[in-house]
Amino acid sequence: MNLVKILHCADIHIGAAESSLGALAESRRTETLITFEKIINLAKENCVDILLIAGDLFNSNNIEKSFTNRVFECFNSIPDIKIVYSAGNHDPLNADSPFKKEQLPKNLFVLDTKDCFVEFSELNTRVYGKSFKEVYMQGAHRFSLNADNNYINLMCIHGEIRSDLGSDYNSITGDFIKSSNMDYIALGHVHKRSEVGKIGNTYVSYPGCPEGQGFDELGEKGVYIGTVSKESCDLQFVSVAKRMHLAESIDISGLSSSNEIAEHILNALKEKYPDSYADNLYKIILTGAINDDVNLSLPEISTRLNDSVYFAKLRDKTEFKLDFEALAQENTLKGIFVKNMLSKISDADEEQKQLLTHALNIGIKAFSGEVNYDET
Ligand SMILES: [Mn+2]
């Protein structure tokens, strides 16, 4: 059986700056390049035949020369591996593209902005696709070329799977996939990984971005490696991210000092991520019931955490351990506030109840000191 070994990656976004990280943002930009180098090494170690990169290799075409030089140096370092690049919406194949400005390595095949394919006869394989020419590529992806059943037919393309044709980012419909006659479609654009699925006779997946760029891109990130033939598709997910973004809810009920709370959080992280706890980026959501005499200092807890892990930010979702009914009887501003809120809560539906209880707790915190409330 004729098998081809591939590594499928996408959305590396080399040079992306996670600006909310402040002083760390610049080093995170370099880490996107380091993750790319790791992918190149994986391709080499696994002796893949073809490296498929389905768009958004660069975060933008406006990328410094030192980064593009390093990328092309990496491509040149794996001369026996065919590399197919299909440009995405972040690095469209226009006059500003590094792929238009630089001398391309011999083993790099950049797909045209019209429907096209590249043929590797020694692998009995064709790779079809189409690069973005501008930031948007509207309308249906109506592919004008037919797959030839004498070859293993792969497609490498950036776009959005959806049922209609309305996307500005290259709609790819289920019907298109079903009738494409491709053996595997290597997609890019969606940063959340999908499993390898099958539509009609065609296998298809999004590997997701290999390095998360924010707290909306949580957890393990990586690439797919494996074999494709006319009868099979056997791809494994391999994690490559330098660091993970993680959101962790941690119950701090019964704790009262900032150092105690910071230590409790760190112990929980060490237990859950024994090998990588210090390297990750965390959004820690503090939960549980605390006494109203505890003056929670988020900046102090945060400083202590950031001394031990790469990055941590805190969100306070704790509630006060209080006898609200008794408080509501007090003839004080606080008492009147509690009485009004309790009455609203008792009339509310389940969803509203949760929101109002949260609001009650924020209000109580406002009475006892500074409110450090930020939902972002
Ligand atoms: Mn992307």
Number of helices: 9
CATH-derived architecture of the largest domain: 4-Layer Sandwich
Radius of gyration based on Cα positions: 26 Å
Strand content: 25-35%
Structural class: alpha/beta
Distance N terminus to C terminus?
Answer: 52 Å
Would you give an account of this structure?
With 376 residues, the protein is α/β, with parallel strands linked by helices. The chain has two domains: 4-239, Purple Acid Phosphatase, chain A, domain 2, CATH 3.60.21; 245-368, no CATH class. Helices cover 28% and strands 25% of the residues. The chain has nine helices and 20 strands. Strands 4-3-2-1-14-15 form a six-stranded mixed sheet, covered by helices on one side. It has a six-stranded mixed sheet with strand order 5-6-8-11-13-12. Strands 7-10-9 form a three-stranded parallel sheet. α3 (98-101) links the parallel β3 and β4 (108-110). α1 (25-45) packs parallel to α2 (65-76), α5 (258-272) crosses α6 (298-306) and α8 runs antiparallel to α9. The protein is elongated. Residues 11, 13, 56, 88, 90, 189, 191 line the site of manganese (II) ion.
